[in-house]
Amino acid sequence: SSGVPVAERWPFLVAGVLLTGPLVCGTSQAVNDWFDRHVDAINEPGRPIPSGRIAGAWGLWIAIAGTILSLIVAWATGPLVFGATCLALLCAWGYSAPPFRFKVSGVWGPAVVALTYEGLTWFTGAAAMAGAWPDAAVLIVLGLYSLGAHGIMTLNDFKAVDGDRATGLRSLPVVLGVDRAARLACIVMALPQVAVIALLVHWDHRLVGAIVALLLAGQLLLMRRLLRDPLAHTPWYNATGTSLYVLGMLASACGLGGVAGS
Question: What per-residue confidence (pLDDT) applies to 39?
Fold first, then answer.
């Protein structure tokens, strides 16, 4: 979406990929695994910490080391990327760790994850490549996709309903019930994409807008099966409908960066 040729700033591309993938994302998973080890013992006892494959406080030390390494790489990449990385790491720790532990809320928990996994990831890549603040159109579209990702994160909570109830986490499937939470998640995923399509057409990216519209239509068809039995079909939808959502993000980014035609 930055529109900058890769060959001109390939070291920054590598740094951006490392930051948004194994470093910050991996660190967030390590933080979550440590502070959720008691919940995982109920929901997913085969995970590394509950199963004993990572013993003692090693899970915490891995999270701390990942945080420090992420900050070092981000500092070397530039001030905008460093700022985004600091925010992402604050969200990662605040999501799982006391006193904030945003994940206990069915609203704030998914919102924090959606912001970091979708919005800040995109922002970091665009800022790293451009070496400057991303274009306003990019910020608007990444913001809309971040909003829609709240629904994806709500679906992700379905696999942990029993453990969430047992440990007092008020995820939307626990508070609203699985069926109502699934319907809300579908609405939250779909409406921002409608806005993205309208904006792409308004900005004369008609071809990209049509591609995103087709991908949304595919998601709507897949949502029909999801809603018949959300608990049974969520893993299937994550592999199909969520993939179409991500492809729509990719198409939008290519269009905004001038890779695709209008």
Answer: 80
- pLDDT of res. 11: 87
Mean pLDDT of the region 176-196: 97
Question: How many Cβ atoms sit within 10 Å of the Cβ of residue 28?
Answer: 24
Q: Going by C-beta distance under 8 Å and a sequence separation of 6 or more, which residues neighbour residue 106?
A: 154, 157, 170, 171, 172, 173, 174, 175, 176, 181
What's the confidence (pLDDT) of residue 262? 43
Averaged pLDDT, 70-93: 95
**DSSP letter string over 191-219?**
HHHHHHHHHHHHTT-HHHHHHHHHHHHHH
Q: Establish how many alpha carbons lie within 13 A of residue 215's alpha carbon, considering only the half-sphere containing its beta carbon.
A: 24
CB 24 within 8 A of CB 144: no
Q: Which tokens hold the place of 144?
A: 């809309």
At 252, which helix (H) or strand (E)?
A: helix 230-256
Report the C-alpha gap between 97 and 197 in whole angstroms. Answer: 37
Task: Give the distance, in angstroms, between the CA of residue 138 and the centroid of all CA atoms in the same chain.
Answer: 16
Q: Where are the domains of the chain?
A: 1-133, 135-262
| Percentage of residues of the chain with pLDDT beyond 70 | 98
pTM value? 0.88
Task: Give the tens place of pLDDT for each residue, 117-148.
Answer: 899 999 998 998 888 899 999 999 999 999 99
Contacts of 16 (CB under 8 A, 6+ apart): 77, 81, 124, 125, 128, 129
261 contacts 207 by C-beta, under 8 angstroms: yes
CA distance 219 to 244: 7
Q: Is the distance from CB of 119 to CB of 143 less than 8 angstroms?
A: yes
